[in-house]
Amino acid sequence: MLENKDQSRTSLEELGEFGLIDHLTEHFKISQKTTVKGIGDDAAVLSFPDTHMVVTTDLLIEGVHFDLSYVPLKHLGYKAVMVNLSDVYAMNATASQITVSIAVSNRFPLEALEDLYAGIQAACINYKVDLVGGDTTSSTTGLVISVTAIGQASGDTIVGRDTAKSGDLVVVTGDIGAAYMGLQILEREKAVFKVNPNNQPDLEQYAYIVERQLKPEARKDVVNLLASLEVLPTAMIDISDGLSSEILHICKNSNVGCNLYEEKIPLDPQVISTCEEFGLDSTTIALSGGEDYELLFTIAQTDYPKIKANPNFTIVGHITDQGEGAHLITRANTKIPLVARGWNALNSD
Ligand code: ADP
Ligand code: MG
């Protein structure tokens, strides 16, 4: 359906491991002054004088985290970097370097890896991070990608999950639930394609949600915006597994409770209409769908005037004492306990 129709195929064996690494990484440029030495030695050398370093890593496995029948490799490369940068930004830090490790079977031609690295490079350029190393090995089955992101922040501006306070406001950036509904569209089109390979999907009316699934953007802009508004969140996390599970992480780690308001949850109209089409409840999708890579944070009430008029932010609730538990207040004004159900749990329903 969306797979690469390019006919040219160069076998990986022709290049060998070192030829492959050179070929894939030759167009990457170093732009960060904290990168002393990048690719090409036994290890990269980085220098972060007087700051705290932030390090995060993620592992993506074909068939578990992605399906190459509808995920173009260029998008996969981009998304693999976004997933990691999002974790750096969720610490209120800036990202400066990544490493990329891949395990790949011989069924992939060189051109496929070129697509993957084109996506990685686009992410590096857009987010101003240097690719400084990685590892390359063979796999007997599918593709495995592991990205590590490195960033920095001064110690007193780093924001964890464990410092939310009773009375704080709960804020979500952008809108949520779209990436999960984009996945539903792609899964449906895959099923249609299996029955009729000549069917060309018309994804026009789902463009936003499909893009949110295939090409998420990490919220670097929010970290910069918060700094310019002089707002230091009291706690922050990125929304990779759905609003419910993320707010519960903050509540558990901070020993607090929360009330979220159903009517406040920011949803794109395409999420609402696609949920109607699939017979799904859009609030459930926002709470339990995943992969939006928006930020969820808490702020002191005194910071409310600084963020209230900003279209990037929606206040969805407030933090309470731990004893009150974590609840959703529905439109009908009933109070239901929040449960952690990531998108994997939702998928296996
Ligand atoms: P070593 O044998 O010391 O592990 P490698 O031959 O694996 O070194 O790697 C050589 C250089 O290329 C190192 O700088 C390494 O970080 C980099 N590198 C290897 N694989 C990748 C990759 N997939 N992407 C980016 N850089 C890589
Ligand atoms: Mg190596």
UniProtKB/TrEMBL annotation:
NCBIfam families: thiL. Catalyzes the ATP-dependent phosphorylation of thiamine-monophosphate (TMP) to form thiamine-pyrophosphate (TPP), the active form of vitamin B1. Substrate binds at H65, E291, W343. PANTHER family: THIAMINE-MONOPHOSPHATE KINASE (PTHR30270:SF0). Belongs to the thiamine-monophosphate kinase family. Keywords: ATP-binding, Kinase, Magnesium, Metal-binding, Nucleotide-binding, Thiamine biosynthesis, Transferase. Mg(2+) 2 binds at D58, D87. Its EC number is 2.7.4.16. Pathway: Cofactor biosynthesis; thiamine diphosphate biosynthesis; thiamine diphosphate from thiamine phosphate: step 1/1. Mg(2+) 4 binds at D42, T56, D87. Reaction mechanism of ThiL seems to utilize a direct, inline transfer of the gamma-phosphate of ATP to TMP rather than a phosphorylated enzyme intermediate. This is Thiamine-monophosphate kinase. It catalyses: thiamine phosphate + ATP = thiamine diphosphate + ADP. ATP binds at Y117, G134, D135, R161, S240. CDD domains: ThiL. It comes from the Bacteria. Mg(2+) 3 binds at D42, D87, D238. The keyword ATP-binding applies. Residues 165-272 form the PurM-like C-terminal domain. Residues 40-152 form the PurM-like N-terminal domain. InterPro entries: PurM-like_C_dom (IPR010918), PurM-like_C_sf (IPR036676), PurM-like_N (IPR016188), PurM-like_N_sf (IPR036921), ThiL-like (IPR006283). Mg(2+) 5 binds at D241.
